[in-house]
Amino acid sequence: xxxxxxxxxxxxxxxxxxxxxxxxxxxxxxxxxxxxxxxxxxxxxxxxxxxxxxxxxxxxxxxxxxxxxxxxxxxxxxxxxxxxxxxxxxxxxxxxxxxxxxxxxxxxxxxxxxxxxxxxxxxxxxxxxxxxxxxxxxxxxxxxxxxxxxxxxxxxxxxxxxxxxxxxxxxxxxxxxxxxxxxxxxxxxxxxxxxxxxxxxxxxxxxxxxxxxxxxxxxxxxxxxxxxxxxxxxxxxxxxxxxxxxxxxxxxxxxxxxxxxxxxxxxxxxxxxxxxxxxxxxxxxxxxxxxxxxxxxxxxxxxxxxxxxxxxxxxxxxxxxxxxxxxxxxxxxxxxxxxxxxxxxxxxxxxxxxxxxxxxxxxxxxxxxx
Length: 370
Hints:
By secondary structure, the protein is mainly β.
């Protein structure tokens, strides 16, 4: 019976996989090919896909050191099993040898600690061309090597449809190196984005519940975001030379640099921003924190519907990557989309007791998560 359930997952996933498909489960009741992700990575070849079951157990930290597609079951899974794919820390590394996690994709993980986009050791280089979406990161997302910055920084990362605490590239000022060609779109950022100093950085269509949401930021384009805190500052004093277009601040005091009631404080430039405006979300009862049960869509009476630089709503439901729904509004799953793959959501074994030679009758429900 255990093998049958594992096969159901494998069959549902295999239709969209590229290269070889490897499966991982640390739940002995639902076994797979490998008990931990690192073992599957070691066995995989560049271009393979690894599927990681949701589980009540946390997976050990793992390192992506080759081009892979790594797919979990989601960070707040809305299915019969209701188990996320949970891991402490994930590392992407590249070195002067054969290890290179560039051009990988990662989705569907609850990451309780940190993500290191360029490793943590001397000799590990910058990672490029990574897609990171539909994950939750409770710690810090580092887009630089915390050991040997500034010689190793990421480039060409697309980070969208995630719940993330902090994203940093570690830059110490406007003339320091940072990650480049970084797109951060349609995310909910619990705390802040900081440490970027490149004009190729885009911060677009995000929602920020935290104060000092942007710090140590230079030359970036910041557009169509909703900064929803009601106390503190949105911008720290060291946010300069950026372009702010069509963002909303609920506060009338945006930052400490004069003019304080403008995104153009200090040496920033701005156009068409909304200051001291309530976005009028459908259902957000605490504007200074995040909850799975909140609905961040704009109500019909909102003044920032369809007014973005691209003609769409401000916040996570406009732009290039409108936030997918994982369940009905208020269900606790609305901002918890599952990975965009066919996935089994319910298994019902109709005849658990069998006579030798008889058939096992199973009803299976599945869906494709767009």
